[in-house]
Design brief:
Number of helices: 13
CATH architecture of one domain: 3-Layer(bba) Sandwich
Structural class: alpha/beta
Largest sheet: 7 strands, mixed
Helix content: 25-40%
Strand order of the largest sheet: 6-5-14-15-16-13-17
Radius of gyration: 21 Å
Number of strands: 19
CATH topology of one domain: FAD/NAD(P)-binding domain
Shape: globular
Length: 413
Amino acid sequence: MSSGMGSGSAVVVGGGIGGLAAGIGLRLAGWDVTVLERAAVPDDAGAGISLAANGMRALAALGVGEAVEAASRRQYTGGTRTPDGRRLAVMDGQALERELGAPIVGIPRAALHRILREALPAGSLVIGAEVTEVTDVTGTADMTGTADTADVDTSRPTRVRVAHGDTVLDADLVVAADGINSRVRRRLFPAHPGPAYSGSTVLRAITERPVDGLTADFELTWGHGAEFGHIAFPDGTAEWHAVLNAPAGVRYRDPLTEVRRRFARWHEPIPALLAATRPEAVLHHDVNELVTPLPSYVAGRVALLGDAAHAMTPHLGQGACQALEDAVTLAAALAEGRTVEDALTRYDAVRRPRSQTVARDARRAGRMGQQLANPLAVGLRNAAIRLTPPGVMVRTVLKHADWSPPRITPRAA
């Protein structure tokens, strides 16, 4: 790609929310895009997601906002409770929507993935394509080695090698959206310690059938070192999650039975949600994060995006929203930039401070919320929440959700 042009060829490594969104955004900016997904089958199952106003605004900027809203349930009711059912805070989603101009919604992850995939033209998403090599970015030849990020050659296209069929793609830009265990990140920043265990493990599932008595659109319940929450969907089913303080790697022979035991005396609709769940539907994974911030989200013509750049705990519900912000910001910067290097410098300058601040605040929210286990500390926290004026709670939500996307305007050829 020559200086001054507003388009070129891009390879996106990773076909999750961030990677798909990046592919859509880059195409809107006039780029020729190939999205490579390592998994042979898209990994959509078993989870739901809440999207705050900033995430919905990003999706609108990508042209898929209406489709996502149609497949979602607006989160107008709910809040935070104690295990015996007492209210700590009440959610007024309609007030937040009026304030921000965009709703908070709940959607099955599979539905969001489908909408994003369908927004890409046929053939641009390649499934079962494992990237084994990214060259002409550093001197290292494979994805398992180390790299010297000072040894960058930006005069030639970046070469991406795919294991299946030993395919080689040349690109003017590579977007690494390959998740928290990003191999591209490891290669570009070998001295970085990588992801660390947060101290929490999460079990989650989507109910098999609609749940009777499910009146709240979104709800969290905080106990001692434990959280139970749910996201309701348009058809009456729901995703639930149980977050527990636990050593890393703990697994249960029968996860659903363990969750039922741990939350047996917690308020409704928790027992009803668990009763509507098939044992084989329960997923279990540890919550890891990038505690040590990256020094940059770019190296040469490679940009890191989403969990590859700033994996965070789920306690603010901002992980996917930040990845969507990344995608829109990257596409807009590349549409406007004089060169790829200028655009990536702008992307890093805009996204790194904000996303790393959100990640830090998510970590703090977990320590003061779900992870808090000392009975005295829990009592003080609950009292403080009850005494907090509703306006202060709203401003806390707005702190991260109040974001406006840049326009993606492709430059004339």
